[in-house]
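thread: overnight batch results

M.L. [08:02]
morning all. the overnight job finished for the chain we discussed friday. pasting input first so we're all looking at the same thing
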Amino acid sequence: MTTHLQSVIEALKNKNLITAVVEVNRAVEENPEDPEAYILRGQISMAVGDKKGAAADMARALELRPELLQRLNGDFKS
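M.L. [08:03]
and the structure it wrote out:
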């Protein structure tokens, strides 16, 4: 797990959404081939009501690692 992703998790634990968003965007920018970064950003997007953004990030994560479908199943049901 990258430093940025660790920072995202810590920010979420501390309920600091702004820092979490900044750090997850940095994680995606610095490592655009990491599906975990897209999953985490998708989860944050869904939590703030951005279903379109969440869907795009989940789709990208699945493009990078299709076997994640089983893990993601159910995470984004509304």
